[in-house]
Each structure stands twice: as structure tokens, then as C-alpha cells.
Specification:
This protein has 4 domains: 18-93, no CATH class; 113-545, no CATH class; 591-744, Transcription Regulator spoIIAA (2-Layer Sandwich), CATH 3.30.750; 756-895, Jelly Rolls. The protein contains 32 helices and 17 strands. Helix 26 (709-714) links the parallel strand 8 (692-696) and strand 9. Helix 4 crosses helix 16 and helix 9 (305-328) crosses helix 20. Residues 772-869 form the Cyclic nucleotide-binding domain.
């Protein structure tokens, strides 16, 4: 399915993400019948291609088709984008529009060093281009405390080292990953959380008296690194657990509108960070108009403040304008955004050369990143960050606490403020949760992109190993970057030697790349961040298919993240998701009352005489019973709705309803508030002239609550508790019949002393009310008396249906052998097995097993005797057909009473 999505590399203005739906297993109306896996997304230029080659399904995996995530997510599980920031650098690498050769691995000739150079350089270039803007965003650009921000090189080195460690595990055979095209990278989606952790640690140490107002405490930078390391360690353990317990689909538990809100909130953060990185002075706070005016109005010491952020804003406007024009002209240039970003630096120096402007002057005005050497005497204080006497821009500072061990310190964590770390735990946990959302999507997407099967559990464990190694070096979380990996694979990169070459070049950038960072204009980093942030922001808020409440939730999450931080935004998202669920699902699924009806058409399984049935069928009979069926959870939030509804039902039939049945069969749980509310309802109903309220528990062990509700109800004379609806109807029917003629209660069962023959005659007359005594007497001459001992099997399920039994004394049990607990008792006065006999087919089989529960006396009519009866006395035999029809009518009417359970019908 074609999708008009776009990316940073396509001529569109938004970043859209896609998921996939297995087309071969969709349910009715196009809905998926199971949880589908994700697939990669492509740019609009690719999906609109008329000559796009069909996708070849991966062997052993379902055939996927891509659909836009936030336009079609109603048909797919909730998923996050593969890489919130970085997928934009690989959309041009799809088969239909790639400028780089895509060669199938099995048909590719032996690789030489020469044909591996392009992918190696591409992967290294992507690492460098991403390290500067995002590395600059790890730490606040300014702080109200005495601690100045560290040089950008610190963040760049953190980014690169985490990337190197991730590539070492994921791109080689060490970690156990099934992809030799993997490109590990620092998890850039976590940049806002790293920023929050650094800021929280600094403020907590200052607030705890860790330093004076004039100097920065030595504990700040080591504590930040340990907090980063702890976050990475928890992330590593989480990946190990997910892989061990096969929980890779955890991302499906996040509602889509919450994800949209988080994406837009991150977009605002990225835009804010881009402005701060561009200006280099001041911190942009959205909490008040004064702080906003101060940031945008401040000119700085050199009077160039406004130009520092106007330049990247102008470049972003120009880029987006070009993309929009190309889109209107229906032209595609997927490489435009990355080439635009890469061209900023050379164009910047060409401009300086044309106008004869010295680099030193531009650096003084703040258009370039500040120096990163360790000489603090020649630098402005805004560019230094002391770490207990250790130069933070040095190589050793990145390896804290490894550096402390090398210096033979007695306590390598002496400079760590554990109280400050404790205050960052909520942010760290939020970061971990956010980290777990990407890998379960990236892995299947990568599998499809490179046409290679993968083991999700092994890949999760591999990510656990890569993050464990990163944690040991006090570094940031990392993962397999889907976009960089696809870019590397599509350009021909593959194999462990090439991966080691990427690691080597990235390590050189880590060790000797300080001069490169000093030479990069702030505008380049700012332009990339602002552009990506705007795309993310508009992607979240412009998603379609949401209700007004969900749209409000998206904006609430964005505002919470912007004003109060990432953790507050995630917390707001969880709360709003719960509220949205209750509001949307409440009317359909959470209403405590499933339905109600008078018992006019309901019958118990008890066999009634004709006179008793006439009493029940009168206008003041069963119609005086109202049955209310409950469902779901009864708790404090819906107990008022429940009690008011019951009162309204009784009020509608004021003065006529005398009996009430409350069926709790479908109730899952009852909290204490609802239990006591039920007791109060009973007391209220007693004042409304109700004679009896029958509570149907639906379970042998009573109500599903901790309160002893059954015992409490027994203390009220108006209430009675029974196991099922049949018993409740039988009880209330007896009360109605006995009010007219008490002698009819036991008449239908003929449980009176007397001769068996008298009992049998009376029973058959009750079953065949149109027959006279002489006809019944003739009929009974074909029956044979049989005595049964307790436990004796009358017939087995699957046996031949060759007789019926009229029970004169005792009780039998009918049950299904293949279904545990499905039983029905057959008592004196009942006839059983008549249907199989009347059918008359020799192949007719018993559907139940019948066993005597006590010593019994039954009268049998065999198939041979019935055949003789039909031949000699057809007018008498017709009454057996009448008996069969009456029993079937009785049973079908009885079964229609049951909403949940199904008892076996004796045959």
C-alpha cells in the first residue's frame, strides 16, 4: 500500500512513520487478526513510484505491507517509530530510489577493500554528522548555578564512545547479533532525558550545599557520568529480561495518542535545544514570557545573540521552503536534507573567504563552537568544566570512574553525590521505558530490509550486552540504529572487517576530533536540530483519526514535557491514557448493568404441572419477577450508576414488581465500597414492598470479593443467595405458585408415599395431559421395571440410544465426559432418553453418560417394545411423540435462560 510519508531526506515537510500489517492474516473489515510486526518506512518519493518492484517476503516470515503509523494505526498495534531522529538519513536508500547500489548478499561477488570503502566512509560520516548536534544537547547550554556547561566536545565524545561500544558488540560476532550489517549508535531518542539528568544533578548538588555560589563543586561531572552509567545499566538489564522472557512486543502496550504526544514533546525539546546550541548563551525556558523575552532579546557580550539563532532559523526556513516547492512540482530529491546540512560548513567558510573575514573573529563572535583544549586560563569560564582537578575535555575524564582507579584513589566514587543520583531516578526510569520502545520495532524492520531472518530474543540479549559494556565505561545507552544500518547495508557494507573499520575510524574521531568540532559552525548543528524537531512536533500533533479527548491528551503531554520535563510528560501520558480508556470504553464495556427484563419468558428447569404453569403464565405470575444481569467490575466509580439503575428499574414497574433477581455471573470483581452499597440497596428495596431479592453468585465459592457478602445477605430476610439463575427462578416460581395453591409445589414431582404404579400413572398423565387413564395404562404395559444400584451406569456417552427411562424413585446424574464439570441431575418424575428413542435411527448415539447417584427405580421402554407399540397401538404411541416434544420445548426454554453456562441436555 502506497503511503505519502516523508523524511528528512524527502521533499516533504514532515516525518511520518509506518508500521506493517500482515496482509495474509487480516480479519473482517481489514482489521488484523493478530499482532503484526513492523516494517521500515520510506519516503513519499519512493512510495509514489509507479514502477516500484514488489517486495519479496522473507522466507519463514509473514508477508508485510507498509501503512502509515499515525494515519492507519487503528488497524495496527501501537508502535513507536524505528528511529525518531535518524531514520531520516536512510529513506533515500530504498530500492526504488536509491542512488547507491543495492546488491543481494547471495549474488554479491567477493568483496574487496575497495568496494567496502564507500559504506565505511558513509557510516563514519553519519556518526560524525549526528554526534555534533546531539552531543551538544546532553548538557544545558547555561545554568543559573555556578557550574558552566562543559565544552561541546564532552558530549560529542560521549556520543562517539557509546556508538563505538555499541558497534563493537552489535556489529561483530561478539554480541551474538544475527546481522553483520548492524550499525550501533548512541540512542539519540534519549537526548532529552540525558539533558534532564545533567541539569537535575547539577541543581541537586548545588542545593545540597555541595559548593559555593562562586565555584562549581567537584562532584557535578562525576555524578552526571555515574547517573548516565546507571541509566545504561538498568537499560541493559531490561533488555536481558525482555530477551529471556520473550517480551519483545512490549511496545504494543503503549497507546498511540500517548506516543504521538511524546514525539511532539520531544520535537519541542529538540527545537529548544537547537536554539540554545545555536546561540550558545542563555537557557530557553518556556515557563514564563519574561524568560522567553530574555533569551530571544539578549545580545550577549559580543552583541550577536540575535544573529546566532536567526541564522539557523533562516536556513531551516529555506530548507523547508525548497522541500515544499519540490513537492508541489512533484519532484523528488531524497538527498536534499543531508546534503543541505553537510553544505553548511563549506558554505560558511566560503562566505568568510569571499568577504575576507578572519576565523578568529567569527569564533570570538560565537558563530563557531568554543575551543576544547584543557587550558582553562585562556578560555572563557563558559567553556570549562572542572572535575575534581581533572580536565573534562581530556580522554581520561570520559572514563570516570576508570580514571579514578588508574589514579589509585582509595574510593573511586568519592566525588559522586548519591543523593543527587537518587533524585534523578524517576528521570532514569522514564529514559529506560523510552529506550525499550525502539528495538522491538527496529529488529523486524531490519530483517525485512536486508532479507534475513532474525531471532528477536537473541537480538534483545545482544542489546543487553552492548549496553552493559557501555555502562561499564560510564557511557550512554546504545542500540542498532535502523536508519544507519540500512544506509550501510544498501551501499554494500557487510562483514566483520568492514564493521571493525567503522569502529577504527570512529575511534579516531573520538581521540583526535577536537579540531573538527571547533571548526563546525553552530548554525550547522542548530539547523539540523530545529528541522528535525519541527518535523517531530508536527508529526505528532497532525496525526489523524483521534477523538477530541485523545487530541487534548496529545497537547497536554506536549505542554507537560515542555514545561515540566520528560518524566512529567510520560507520567501525564500514562494518566491521560487511563482516563481516555475509562471515558471511551466505559459506556460500552464498563457499564455495571448488561441488561434487564421481566421473567415472563424465563423458566426454571423444574418440571411443573399444567395447573402450576397456568399460575406462572398469568399476568401476576412470572411478570412480577425482574431479572437484572450485571457485568465487569463493581467498584466505587460505578456503584452509584448501578444502584440508581436498579432503583429506576423498580420504579418503572412501581407496585407491580415483587421479586428481583440480581445475576452476578458475569461480574469479575466487587470491591468493598460496592459490597456495602449492595447491602444498603437491599435495605432500600425492602421498603419498596419487594418480597424477595435473589442474588445469583454464578460461582460455587460465592461473590468475587473480600467482604463476606453472602453471610451479610443471609442476615436479611428479604435476600437469598443461590449459585445459578435456574435455582433463583425455581425459588421464586415456588413462591408464586405456593401463594395460590401450596399443594402444587411438590405435585409435579409426585414425591409422595404410594405404590410405584400409582406414581408412574400420575407422572405419565402429567407429561401427557391430553391422554386419558386407559390410554396411559395401555402405554405403561410396554414398560419394564429396572432397579439400579448406586454408581451403576445406565448408559455411556457414545452408546446406542435404544431406550428411554422414567424415573420413579431416586436420582441420576447426566454428564459430558469430555467437559469437566458439565452435569445435570435427573430426579424422580423425569423422563430421560426419549429423544434418541423417538428418532428411531439405529446409528443414533448417546451424547451424555447417565449414572445412578443413589439406589433408583426406573421404568424402561426399549426400542423393540416401542416398535411393537407403534405397530399395534399407533394411537397410543403418538403420546410418546407428544411427551418428546414437550420435553424438548421445556429444555430449550430452560437453556435460553442461561447467558453463560450450558448444561447438558439428557438424551
Amino acid at each position: 500500500m502506497a503511503s505519502e510519508t516523508s523524511s528528512l531526506l524527502s521533499p516533504s515537510t514532515t516525518i511520518s512513520f509506518q508500521t506493517s500489517i500482515p496482509t495474509s492474516s487480516s480479519g473482517p473489515n481489514g482489521s488484523p487478526s493478530r499482532l503484526p510486526g513492523p516494517s521500515s518506512y520510506v519516503s513519499s518519493s519512493q512510495t509514489t513510484s509507479q514502477n516500484r518492484a514488489p517486495t519479496t517476503p522473507i522466507r519463514g516470515t509473514p508477508n508485510y505491507s507498509a501503512v502509515p503509523l499515525y494515519r492507519q494505526l487503528s488497524k495496527a498495534p501501537n508502535q513507536l517509530p524505528h528511529d525518531l531522529f535518524n531514520d531520516n538519513f536512510s529513506s533515500f536508500l530504498d530500492d526504488s530510489s536509491s542512488i547507491l547500489p543495492s546488491v543481494e548478499p547471495k549474488s554479491r561477488p567477493a568483496r574487496t577493500l575497495l568496494n567496502q570503502i564507500p559504506p565505511i566512509l558513509l557510516a563514519t560520516l553519519l556518526n560524525l554528522m549526528l554526534s555534533v548536534p546531539f552531543g551538544s544537547a546532553f548538557f544545558p547550554m547555561s545554568s543559573p548555578t555556578a557550574c558552566p556547561p562543559p565544552p561541546p566536545l564532552i558530549g560529542v565524545r560521549l556520543f562517539l564512545l557509546s556508538t563505538i561500544l555499541g558497534q563493537t558488540i552489535l556489529g561483530t560476532n561478539i554480541g551474538g547479533s544475527g546481522f553483520d550489517e548492524s550499525q550501533g549508535m548512541m540512542m539519540v531518542e534519549n537526548t532529552p532525558f540525558m539533558h534532564s539528568i545533567a541539569q537535575s544533578v547539577t541543581e541537586a548538588i548545588i542545593a545540597n550545599g555541595g559548593g559555593s555560589t562562586e565555584e562549581c563543586p567537584d562532584e557535578v561531572f562525576p555524578t552526571i557520568l555515574v547517573a548516565f552509567s546507571l541509566t545504561t545499566l538498568i537499560t541493559s538489564l531490561s533488555f536481558f529480561l525482555l530477551g529471556h522472557f520473550n517480551l519483545g512486543n512490549i511496545v504494543y502496550f503503549f497507546p498511540k495518542h500517548v506516543l504521538c504526544g511524546c514525539i511532539s514533546g520531544i520535537g519541542v525539546f529538540v527545537v529548544t535545544t537547537g536554539l540554545e546550541v545555536s546561540k550558545g548563551i542563555g537557557k530557553l525556558e518556556w515557563t514564563s514570557l519574561e524568560s522567553i523575552e530574555e533569551f530571544f532579546g539578549s545580545q550577549g557580550e559580543n552583541g550577536t545573540g540575535i544573529y546566532l539563532f536567526l541564522l539557523p532559523c533562516t536556513l531551516v526556513f529555506l530548507l523547508r521552503l525548497i522541500i515544499r516547492l519540490l513537492k508541489k512540482l512533484d519532484r523528488s530529491f531524497p538527498l536534499l536534507p543531508p546534503l543541505f546540512f553537510l553544505s553548511i560548513t563549506p558554505c560558511f567558510y566560503i562566505f568568510l573567504w569571499l568577504f575576507n573575514i578572519k576565523v578568529s573573529r567569527v569564533k570570538q563572535l560565537g558563530f563557531l563552537f568554543p575551543p576544547t583544549d584543557g587550558d582553562t586560563t585562556t578560555q572563557d569560564t563558559s567553556s570549562t568544566f572542572e572535575d575534581g582537578g581533572v580536565d573534562p575535555s581530556s580522554f581520561a575524564a570520559i572514563f570516570f570512574p576508570s580514571y579514578s582507579f588508574a589514579q589509585n584513589l582509595s574510593d573511586p566514587f568519592a566525588l559522586v553525590s548519591w543523593s543527587a543520583i537518587a533524585k534523578t531516578l524517576p528521570v532514569q526510569l522514564g529514559c529506560v521505558v523510552f529506550s525499550l520502545m525502539h528495538v522491538p520495532i527496529n529488529i523486524p524492520s531490519m530483517s525485512m530490509s536486508v532479507n534475513k531472518d532474525c531471532d528477536m530474543n537473541s537480538e534483545m540479549i545482544a542489546h543487553g550486552r552492548s549496553n552493559l559494556l557501555s555502562a561499564l565505561f560510564a557511557q550512554l545507552p546504545n542500540y542498532m540504529c535502523y536508519s544507519n544500518s540500512v544506509a550501510y547495508a544498501k551501499s554494500g557494507g557487510r562483514g566483520q572487517p568492514s564493521s571493525l573499520a567503522v569502529i577504527t575510524l570512529t575511534t579516531l574521531l573520538f581521540l583526535k576530533g577536537s579540531s573538527l568540532v571547533e571548526s563546525i559552525p553552530r548554525a550547522m548543528a542548530g539547523t539540523l536540530l530545529i528541522h528535525v524537531g519541527l518535523d517531530l512536533f508536527f508529526e505528532g500533533i497532525s496525526a489523524h483519526g483521534f477523538s477530541a479527548l485523545e487530541i487534548g491528551s496529545i497537547w497536554a503531554i506536549v505542554v507537560s514535557m515542555t514545561l515540566f520535563g520528560m518524566t512529567a510528560g510520560l507520567a501525564a501520558g500514562m494518566v491521560l491514557a487511563a482516563i481516555t480508556f475509562v471515558v471511551d470504553a466505559g459506556p460500552a464495556h464498563l457499564s455495571p448493568i448488561r441488561g434487564h427484563m421481566p421473567a415472563t419468558t424465563l423458566r426454571s428447569s423444574k418440571w411443573r404441572s399444567v395447573e402450576a404453569r397456568d399460575i406462572l403464565n398469568k399476568s401476576d405470575g412470572l411478570r412480577r419477577i425482574v431479572c437484572v444481569q450485571l457485568q465487569g467490575h463493581l467498584y466505587f466509580a460505578n456503584l452509584t450508576q448501578f444502584t440508581d439503575a436498579v432503583k429506576e428499574i423498580i420504579e418503572e414497574r412501581k407496585g407491580f414488581t415483587r421479586f428481583l433477581v440480581l445475576d452476578f455471573t458475569l461480574v469479575i470483581g466487587i470491591d468493598s465500597s460496592a459490597a456495602f452499597s449492595l447491602l444498603k440497596l437491599v435495605d432500600t428495596m425492602a421498603k419498596r414492598n419487594l418480597l424477595k431479592i435473589a442474588f445469583v453468585t454464578g460461582k460455587a465459592d460465592g461473590f468475587p470479593c473480600t467482604v463476606n457478602l453472602s453471610e451479610q445477605l443471609r442476615s436479611r430476610s428479604i435476600a437469598v443467595t443461590v449459585k445459578d439463575l435456574d435455582k433463583a427462578l425455581e425459588l421464586l416460581e415456588d413462591m408464586i405458585v405456593s401463594a395460590v395453591n401450596p399443594n402444587l409445589i411438590n405435585e409435579s414431582f409426585f414425591r409422595v408415599a404410594g405404590e410405584e404404579t400409582e406414581f408412574l400413572h400420575a407422572m405419565m398423565l402429567a407429561h401427557c395431559p391430553t391422554a386419558d387413564k386407559s390410554t396411559v395404562k395401555t402405554l405403561l404395559t410396554y414398560f419394564k421395571r429396572v432397579g439400579l444400584k448406586k454408581g451403576e451406569v445406565v448408559w455411556k456417552q457414545g452408546g446406542k440410544a435404544d431406550r428411554l427411562c422414567a424415573i420413579v424413585r431416586g436420582q441420576l446424574l447426566s454428564y459430558l465426559e469430555e467437559e469437566a464439570g458439565t452435569t445435570e441431575r435427573v430426579v424422580a418424575g423425569d423422563v430421560v432418553g426419549e429423544l434418541g428413542l423417538i428418532m428411531g435411527h439405529e446409528g443414533e448415539r448417546r451424547l451424555t453418560t447417565l449414572v445412578a447417584e443413589v439406589d433408583c427405580v426406573v421404568y424402561e421402554l426399549t426400542s423393540e417394545a416401542f416398535a411393537t407399540l407403534k405397530a399395534k397401538k399407533p394411537a397410543v404411541a403418538i403420546y410418546l411423540f407428544q411427551l418428546c416434544v414437550r420435553y424438548m420445548s421445556h429444555r430449550l426454554q430452560h437453556v435460553s435462560n442461561r447467558f453463560v453456562e450450558t448444561k447438558c441436555i439428557p438424551i
